[in-house]
Amino acid sequence: MRVELDEPKCVASGQCVMAAPEVFDRREEDGIAFVLDERPAGDSLAEVREAVAICPAAAIRLVQ
Predict the structure, then answer these.
(1) Mean of the per-residue pLDDT values for the chain?
(2) Which site among 52, 57, 59, 64 is 20 to 30 Å from 11 CA-CA?
(3) How many Å separate Cα 55 from the centre of its chain?
(4) Which segments in the chain show pLDDT lower than 50?
(5) How far apart are CA 53 and CA 9, in angstroms?
(6) According to the model, what pLDDT value does residue 21 have?
(7) Single pTM value for the model
């Protein structure tokens, strides 16, 4: 599975970083999220699924 983040949709809530800190981080200047690991595995993949579910902007998705 690959993580996709639509940065223009991101509202900088930081929920993804809290849910999956090994996979997401935020830019210092504006708080917009970015992906650290496009292909997480194991526990990180479960955390990404949680991030997808709680993202208030629906800016994250997992694709095959």
Answers:
(1) 97
(2) 64
(3) 8
(4) none
(5) 15
(6) 97
(7) 0.94
